[in-house]
Write a structure and sequence with these properties.
Elements: H1 3-10, H2 15-30, H3 35-38, H4 41-55, H5 60-70, H6 78-85, H7 89-98, H8 104-113, H9 116-124, H10 130-139, H11 142-149, H12 158-167, H13 175-179, H14 186-193, H15 198-208, H16 212-229, H17 242-258, H18 264-272, H19 276-287, H20 291-298, H21 303-312, H22 320-330, H23 338-347, H24 354-365
Helix pairs in contact: 2-5, 5-7, 7-9, 8-9, 8-10, 9-11, 14-15, 17-19, 18-19, 21-23, 21-24
């Protein structure tokens, strides 16, 4: 786009022209000769003034496209990048994940000032520095710590790994990502073994070739410690129970929901992280469904009912096949029905309102 065209667009105040102006400036800067010229103080001051002036009144879709365009740009004004990183999460996500202009102090500020979803994206950022890791561990927010545990490129030292494994005793969602983490040591694996379920135990035993005698000794020691710590007359439970995990997940979902941060996209991310029970809690919360109804439907041979529930909370028809596949992968092939069941499930996304789909789900779930 020529400079003359940009000047003409600058005279317009229509949203379409403002978007074209913003993106035109981005393209002009991308085509600039030499990075050093673009980051000179004079050019940066000019760009900062132009961008912030335009973004202040820009519509959501324009800000979203701008964030995507600038997510890897090295010439963008840092002040603008920080503004976009604090925008709503769908706009901020690519900037938080990829902008080279967000430094450790900027990321720590996001951990302090931004929403839980922003904090989770910070914890997922590739090659996360040790000072940001320390800030995450100090805050000890379960969802953010879980995202950090799944970030294998983060600068996690031995003490950081030890702190995460210690926290896994109370935070069930930490166990799966930690069991697969490349920095997990033999000693920490043995400690983690005590708190995980049977499937993860087998995985840990295979990966680290844990000595059965050491395992028995660790289990015995843990039981003894738990009984010593338990109040008189009360039993001690060493292994995390399903109810404890569900309680922690319910608290997380309720916190997100109360803050207006629980959206359909969160359910997809829960499944991508292998957290089926978190998906169940989130689906029940968003749809105002009975938790037991959602569980029974997922364990049934009627995937069309799961389709109704997903349609009721605004999940798109095009996304559902991936959701169904991930759930089946995590739930021993259920909900069943095979390819025919999947076709029936897609039919649940018919030309009906979300309210009708929710009502249909509640009625049908009673018979499962």
């Amino acid at each position: 786009m020529s400079s003359e065209s940009l000047l003409e667009l600058a005279k317009s105040r229509t949203p379409a022209d403002r978007e074209r102006l913003l993106l035109g400036i981005v393209e002009l800067c991308d085509a600039g000769d030499g990075a050093s010229a673009m980051i000179s103080p004079q050019i940066q001051a000019l760009l900062n003034s132009i961008f912030l002036g335009l973004v202040a009144g820009a519509e959501r879709d324009i800000r979203k496209r701008l964030a995507e365009k600038l997510s890897t740009a090295e010439w963008a004004p840092p002040a603008l990048i920080n503004v976009l990183a604090l925008d709503e999460i769908e706009i901020a996500r690519p900037v938080i994940a990829g902008s080279p202009l967000l430094k450790d102090p900027d990321l720590i500020r996001l951990l302090v000032e931004a929403t839980i979803e922003h904090q989770i994206e910070v914890a997922r950022r590739p090659n996360l520095g040790c000072s940001v890791v320390a800030a995450i561990l100090e805050a000890a927010e379960p969802a953010v710590m879980t995202a950090l545990a799944g970030n294998t490129s983060a600068e996690l030292g031995p003490d950081d790994m030890r702190q995460l494994v210690d926290a896994a005793r109370e935070i069930a969602s930490l166990r799966m990502p930690l069991s697969k983490h490349p920095k997990l040591t033999d000693g920490l694996a043995l400690q983690l073994y005590i708190w995980v379920g049977q499937a993860l135990r087998q995985s840990l035993a295979d990966r680290f070739r844990l000595d059965p005698k050491l395992i028995e000794a660790a289990l015995a020691r843990s039981v003894k410690e738990a009984h010593i710590a338990a109040p008189s007359g009360q039993g001690a439970v060493v292994m995390a129970r399903d109810g404890e995990r569900e309680t922690m997940e319910a608290r997380l979902i309720e916190k997100l929901h109360s803050a207006g941060q629980l959206r359909p996209g969160y359910l997809v991310r829960a499944l991508q992280e292998g957290r089926l029970s978190l998906f169940v809690v989130a689906l029940a919360t968003l749809g105002r469904f009975e938790m037991d109804h959602v569980r029974r439907v997922i364990d049934s041979d009627r995937p069309e009912l799961l389709g109704l529930a997903c349609a009721a909370i605004g999940i798109d028809r095009s996304v559902f096949p991936s959701i169904l596949e991930m759930i089946r992968g995590l739930n021993n092939g259920f909900p069943g029905g095979g390819p025919e069941g999947a076709r029936r499930a897609i039919g649940a996304f018919g030309p009906v309102s979300a309210q009708v789909a929710a009502t249909a789900f509640r009625q049908a779930a009673l018979s499962v």
